[in-house]
Amino acid sequence: MTSNIRYHIGFGPDDIDGIDVAILCGDPGRAERVARDHLTFEKTLSTNRALNSFVGVTPGGRRVVSATSGMGAPSTSIVVNELAQVGIRHIIRVGTCGSIQPHVKTGSVVISRASLCRQGAADDIAPKEYPAAASPFWTLALADAAKNLGIDWHVGLTASVDTFYEGQERTDTSYNHTLIPSRTGLIESYKALRVLNFEMESGTLFKMANAYGLGAACIAAVIASRDEAESVAVEAKAKAEYDAIRAAVAAVDGIDPTWLDTHHRW
């Protein structure tokens, strides 16, 4: 391990020499599953602050970092900044989400082409009106991978918000059953705007990537259908998460490397 480590992620540029792609998960357990079950495991980089990170090799032979962002935008902003510091130039978020459109079923995956960003951390990166848009190249690579793997997939707009309960208009499963006026009727408003799903990190990731000159994308397993219930469909979670990881790894192997070299160097 190099001595030039970054404070939060617990490793430095010498530890990932030659690696420029990271698969980023909110859950440290998922980050480890990526590395051990979907990659050829190479080494553990760090378990500092539960921001677990590993190195593994894709089936196509590409070395990648599998890292943990933690829950929510503030933690994600720290990890993305430090990943960029150590040499990561492309980040694919593999997360979970709740759908708000009836055709986006539990067990499918959503690939975010852009996010409605309602996150305080992102406001420290760029103005509110600054686009929270994914890399078109990585988005296409994820969609192509999901299609080829026979996964039930959707590409569209994501609402990226700071809170799991009030911010996603949950009242039945929340301690707080009374929402402030601006959060009442949120789901119906977003449905009318053709937003597909709620999650909690992509908006800040996309704004940071665009401001920093990185390539970023997000694929999220649908583990709740808000048309049916507020709660997580636990029985569907494992397969949907597995499919999201498979698509992310396949996208890393399938993307045209000339796109990366040409379009994400500033």
Main sheet, how many strands, which sense, barrel?
5 strands, mixed, barrel
CATH fold group: Rossmann fold
Number of strands: 9
Q: Judging from the principal axes of the Cα atoms, what is the shape?
A: globular
- Give the DSSP E fraction (strand runs of 2 or more residues): 25-35%
Total individual domains: 1
CATH class: Alpha Beta
Second-tier CATH architecture: 3-Layer(aba) Sandwich
Mean pLDDT: 94
Indicate the radius of gyration in whole angstroms.
17 Å
What is the tally of helical segments? 8
Distance between the termini: 29 Å
- Within the largest sheet, what's the order of strands? 5-8-7-6-9
List SSEs in N-to-C order: EHEEEHEEHHEHEHEHH
- Identify the CATH homologous superfamily: Nucleoside phosphorylase domain
**SSE-based structural type:** alpha/beta
- In helices, the fraction of residues equals 25-40%
Which regions have little confidence, pLDDT < 50, spanning 5+ residues? none
Give the arrangement of secondary structure elements.
Blueprint: E1 21-25, H1 28-38, E2 40-46, E3 53-57, E4 63-68, H2 73-85, E5 90-99, E6 109-118, H3 120-123, H4 136-148, E7 153-161, H5 186-192, E8 195-199, H6 202-212, E9 215-225, H7 234-254, H8 257-263
